[in-house]
Design a protein that fits this description.
Layout lengths: L20 H8 L3 E5 L2 E4 L1 H20 L3 E2 L5 E3 H7 L1 H4 L6 E3 L5 E4 L4 H11 L8 E10 L14 E11 L2 H21 L5 E4 L10 E7 L5 E5 L6 E3 L22 E4 L6 H8 L7 E8 L2 E8 L6 H8 L5 E2 L2 H8 L15 E5 L8 E4 L5 E6 L8 E3 L18 E15 L1 H5 L4 E2 L5 E2 L2 E8 H11 L1 E2 L2 E2 L10 E5 L5 H16 L4 E3 L6 H11 L3 E5 L7 E6 L5 E5 H15 L11
Parallel strand pairs: 3-7, 15-17, 17-20, 27-28, 27-29
Antiparallel strand pairs: 1-2, 4-6, 5-6, 7-8, 8-24, 9-10, 10-21, 11-12, 11-21, 13-19, 14-15, 14-16, 18-19, 21-24, 22-23, 25-26, 29-30, 30-31
Helix pairs in contact: 1-11, 2-6, 2-11, 12-14
The structure holds adenosine-5'-triphosphate and magnesium ion.
Length: 579
């Protein structure tokens, strides 16, 4: 295509409110424009890139026998009421009424709709397994849309759903997706990590998230190089570092001491001269409408996700100061497990085998020393804390590290939640009516683009992998007034076009410097520069990512570029297993 005829509105400056690189660059390079919070228009370049991503997704989904379907983005409330999620999901769901006052919502995921579809159609085990997928808009009224396309209120998802007769079938469908996802992200050129994940309100058991490590991410992953352990922070289980100071010897009973005005671990620790690791942090929480005391080592943080899972209450919350006073009889800052009756006590497992620690005394301005878990109070010991940098890996005993990452995809074994709640049943081999077992699998199409920009940019702009860059090559005549340059550029451009390369001809009447800058900004992987040496029949090929250049003859230019493009983009089936 001829650049002079395209609308590619590049900007010199990034808007001040764009914090992450992909947001800045997608705006500056003229890929996207904002309509309102979390709603974006995709201009020509973004659309080309997203279509390439979708094409890779389609090829790999088709390759595992998935069948593409399309369902409406607008859903009647009834199906969501059947599964119970009309009530369970809060403000994230866009809800609206039609002219007759009937309730609807905009689809944020499609388990209900595909289960509705399957229940009307599937009758027998002979029709299973099924894998259905679509690439379709999803709507979520995110509380904080941000970072450009990373967290938006309307995005494109590849979502697929599997129906199987038994667990073994589901395991296979899940593995197929796992491998397809590795190929998809590999072909899109992402450096990605599959991690063990928490499945959240989706229900179900096993799940895996595909993470793209990047400081711009909103998720954390915990990993150990030695053992290869990787998990989402929400689920990661690690061994805590040893306490800073060994516990004192002795079997004395708990002993009260005055801690006037010292409420936080930091304050008490400074006052008694003992490290945070010698203290017990006591938190009063409310789970299922009842008080629960949660104990952690002083330096540890509670994992809200783990607590929600352990208490089976997704809405578990800290108690208000008045509730703490009513239930425990002491103000926040001085509560502790000793003598605290009638309240369930959950202790993090890092407190097992400890002794003679410091905890709140359940009296204003008082703490206790010589508190030994198990002897001075009883508790259920569970994994409740958030893993942190420097914890030790369970298997290798080596330190783990914590990195930020962007979630690009997620696969879940749903189990029977939807087939059972919505009455999807088929006849098995013996003629019994049974519920099929389901899986659900998502990919955020825009997240692949943003993740890729985050991983592939420099001071000059984007350097997207050739497989998803909007154009594969640009031909840049340095001086358009020069007839020889014009002719050579036209020739290379038409050779490449004829060979099916996505090529741009920068035929704008701009200075060469401006053309180079723009091509680097929008991230064209390869450039043929037609300049002064055209008289000798020579042009220069350059590689955006490395800056490497090579002189070639005009005749060979198209062939060399085609080879570079082919070598840089893995073909279907030839990538890149999990890293
Ligand atoms: P997150 O934790 O980031 O909110 P999620 O767990 O809600 O994601 P899923 O419901 O598993 O996401 O959706 C599947 C995929 O859709 C995600 O892996 C992600 O790539 C993408 N996605 C989810 N929410 C958004 C959003 N608001 N904007 C863009 N992409 C999104
Ligand atoms: Mg979400």
């Amino acid at each position: 295509m001829r650049w002079s005829r395209l609308f590619l509105p590049t900007l010199r400056e990034a808007p001040a409110d764009a914090e992450v690189a992909s947001h800045r660059l997608l705006l500056r390079a003229g890929y996207i424009r904002q309509l309102s919070a979390g709603l974006y228009c995709y201009l020509f370049l973004a659309q080309r890139s997203l279509r390439k991503i979708e094409r890779i997704i389609r090829e790999e989904m088709d390759a595992i026998g998935a069948q593409e379907i399309y369902t409406p983005e607008l859903h009647p409330a009834e199906v969501w009421k059947e599964s119970g999620r009309w009530q369970a999901i809060g403000d994230d769901m866009f809800r609206l009424k039609d002219r007759w006052g009937r309730e609807h919502c905009l689809g944020m995921t499609e388990e209900e709709v595909v289960t509705f579809l399957a229940r009307g159609e599937l009758r027998s085990y002979k029709q299973l397994p099924q894998i259905w997928y679509q690439i379709q808009a999803k709507f979520r009224d995110e509380p904080r849309p941000k970072s450009g396309l990373m967290r938006v209120r309307r995005f494109t998802m590849k979502d697929s759903y599997t129906f199987d007769i038994d667990q073994a079938g589901l395991d296979e469908a899940y593995q197929k997706h796992y491998r397809a996802y590795c190929r998809i992200f590999g072909r899109c050129g992402l450096d990605f990590v599959p991690v063990d994940a928490h499945s959240g309100p989706m229900g179900g058991s096993e799940s895996c998230e595909f993470m793209v490590p990047s400081p711009a991410g909103e998720d954390w992953l915990i990993e150990c190089r030695e053992s290869g352990y990787r998990a989402n922070l929400e689920k990661a289980v690690t061994v805590a570092r040893s306490p800073e100071r060994p516990d004192p010897d002795g079997n004395g009973p708990p002993e009260e001491f005055a801690t006037p005005g010292r409420r936080t671990i930091e304050e008490v620790s400074e006052f008694d001269g003992l490290p945070a690791t010698s203290h017990i942090k006591s938190l009063v929480m409310v789970a299922n409408g009842k008080p629960v005391m949660v104990l952690l080592r002083g330096d540890h943080q509670l994992s809200a996700v783990k607590l929600a899972e352990q208490t089976q209450d997704p809405h578990v919350r800290p108690a208000h100061p008045e509730e703490v006073r009513d239930w425990i009889g002491a103000p926040v800052g001085f509560v502790g497990p000793v003598g605290c009756h009638g309240v369930e006590v959950l202790a993090d497992s890092a407190l097992a085998d400890r002794r003679n620690m410091v905890a709140g005394a359940n009296r204003t301005d008082r703490h206790l020393r010589n508190v030994t878990p198990g002897r001075d109070f009883s508790a259920r010991f569970l994994d409740l804390r958030e893993a942190e940098d420097g914890d030790l890996d369970v298997e290798s005993g080596m330190p783990v590290r914590r990195r930020k990452a962007i979630e690009v995809g997620h696969i879940f074994k749903l189990g029977y939640k939807y087939s059972e709640s919505m009455g999807l049943r088929v006849l098995d081999q013996r003629g019994r009516s049974i519920a099929p077992i389901m899986g659900s699998y998502g990919i955020g199409v825009e997240r692949i683009l943003t993740g890729s920009v985050e991983q592939n940019h420099d001071g000059r702009g984007m350097s997207l992998p050739v497989s998803i860059a909007p154009f594969e090559a640009v031909v840049t005549p340095v001086n358009l007034k020069h007839a020889g340059q014009r002719a050579a550029a036209e020739r290379i451009y038409s050779d490449l076009s004829a060979a099916g390369v996505d090529v741009l001809l920068d035929d704008r009447a701009e200075r060469a410097g401006v053309k180079f800058k723009d091509a680097d900004l929008i991230g064209v992987p390869f450039r043929a520069t037609v300049g002064r040496r055209v008289g000798e029949g020579i042009v220069e090929i350059s590689i955006r990512r490395t800056g490497a250049t090579e002189n070639v003859t005009i005749e060979r230019a198209a062939t060399v570029l085609q080879r570079l493009i082919r070598d840089a983009a893995p073909a279907p089936g030839e990538t890149n297993g999990p890293p």
